[in-house]
Amino acid sequence: MVRNCRSVTETQEFAAELADSVPAGHVIALLGNLGSGKTTFAQGFASGLGIREHVGSPTFKLVSEYAGFPHNLHHVDCYRLQHADDFFNIGGERYLAPEHAVTLIEWADIISEVLPKETIIIKFRRSKAEPDTRTITVKGWYLDE
Amino acid sequence: MIILGIETSCDETAVSVCRNGEILSNTVSSQLIHNSYGGVVPEIASREHEKLLNIVVDKSLGEAGINLADVDAVAVTQGPGLAGTLLTGISFAKGLAMGLNIPLIPVNHLEAHIFANFLVDPTLEYPFVCLLVSGGHTQLWHIKNMDSYTLLGETRDDAAGEAFDKGARILGLGYPGGPAIETEAIGGNPDAVHFPRGLMGNDSLEFSYSGLKTSLLYFMDDFKENVSISKNDVAASYQQAIVDSLVEKMNRAVYQTKSKTCVIAGGVAANKTLRICSREKLANIRILFPDLSFCTDNGAMVSFLGEVKLNAGYTTNIEFGAQPNLKMATS
């Protein structure tokens, strides 16, 4: 599934829609360069789970956990990590098999070899011609079929 | 009273010994701590809390010249932070407290950051405004008393330290990004490029840096150094945009709360432009900048707050667990 989102709001609305339909236990890998819309997507996803808190970038905290409904959100960021080992050193197992939660992982390519094979992959691309538009590609899930 | 403080909320293993309000040792597992904004060092694999805790505790007691048997209480970070690393620190602290049959005090990481200000300046008095600004946080607090804190505003997206770090990457500068941009900005014209200042409207005390990062990205798409704009100018302009919004919101917070003192804590507090601009803008306000070793994630703030809590009569059952999204007692 490919979606062109023409603003921050459109990206967030799309993310909130997905949050409605992805069941607990899933891991979602968010791939894309700086400024391509990963954190914006996470913010929309969180609002889809009824989370009212500010969802900031977890780059330095590595993980932010939020209580939501019908399930919780683990927001992980691998930007500062170098290997999958680093991920397990901070207790990464918890986020790869989320209980009563969905895990979003920014910069998940850094730990690609340890991601579960059912991981939903979402790629973000920014176009120079249309600075506010983000092309978002979702793979590895029934929506794709 | 001798308190051993343990902090493992993120990627730093930190331990400290505090005796009657005085820090006898403040030991962190990474060597690079003084050089980095926000206490962040890239090689996380080298710092595994479980393996490091024994070593760091041992080193901290040694530096303090204290025997384990003389410790009166253990303080440990309960949250917020990473579930796994918090649990490692808490389990270790519980084992220690039970083995020594001494009290164990759970400490809130953010509250410890705020209390570190009393370590730096014992004459600090309530109430005051605290700008906590690092890689992970950009928050404005009104500290009225112990257990009486109001979050006045925080970032809606990226933290200021993160804006420095990611800006440095976009500009092709080194790591850590804060000092890299600061160095690159020397001699640059801060007015050369107008980058957006987030959420400046009305009386907002919130911050936003993701728009700034994106606008730097767009700018660099087409940028080539030329006679009128150099990379130094871009770095200086970017830095100025971050600093301006920090100083403006801090000024509003001080004004709105009618405070006379403001503390700027966190790794970004090391930025000289921030120091100069805040002193200019808040000319009649007392501004404190805690030493960096107390600003980054550290054990001293935990042992210190542990002692404050113990003296204030806080007691706890040992049954507590890690709380990754622990909130502050606000009112």
Compile the SSE list and pairings.
The complex is a heterodimer of chains A (145) and B (331).
Chain A: E1 2-5, H1 8-21, E2 27-31, H2 38-48, E3 63-66, E4 72-77, H3 84-89, H4 93-96, E5 101-106, E6 120-126, E7 134-139
Chain B: E1 2-7, E2 14-19, E3 22-28, H1 49-64, E4 73-79, H2 83-100, E5 104-108, H3 109-120, E6 128-133, E7 138-145, E8 148-154, H4 160-170, H5 177-185, H6 210-221, H7 231-257, E9 261-265, H8 272-281, E10 286-288, H9 300-311
Parallel strand pairs in B: 1-4, 4-5, 6-9, 9-10
Antiparallel strand pairs in B: 1-2, 2-3, 6-7, 7-8
Essential attributes:
heterodimer, A: 145 residues, alpha/beta, Rossmann fold, seven-stranded mixed sheet, 24% helix, globular, B: 331 residues, Nucleotidyltransferase, domain 5, 2 domains, five-stranded mixed sheet, 10 strands, 18% strand
Question: Briefly, what is this?
Answer:
Chain A has 145 residues and is an alpha/beta fold.
Task: Give a description of the structure.
The complex is a heterodimer of chains A (145) and B (331). Chain A is of the alpha/beta class and 145 residues long. Chain A has four helices and seven strands; from the N terminus they run E-H-E-H-E-E-H-H-E-E-E. Chain A has a single domain (2-144), classed as Rossmann fold (3-Layer(aba) Sandwich), CATH 3.40.50. Chain A is 24% helix and 26% strand. Chain B has 331 residues and is an alpha/beta fold. Chain B has two domains: 2-113 and 297-311, ATPase, nucleotide binding domain (Nucleotidyltransferase, domain 5, 2-Layer Sandwich); 122-294, Nucleotidyltransferase, domain 5 (2-Layer Sandwich), CATH 3.30.420.40. Chain B is 38% helix and 18% strand. Chain B is globular. Chain B starts with a strand and ends in a 20-residue tail after the last helix. Chain A binds chain B through residues 34-35, 39-40, 43, 54, 56-57, 59-67, 80-83, 85-86, 89-94, 126, 128, 131, and chain B through 10-11, 38, 40, 42-45, 47-49, 81-85, 87, 134-136, 154-159, 161-162, 165-166, 169-170, 210, 213-214, 217-218, 221, 324-325.
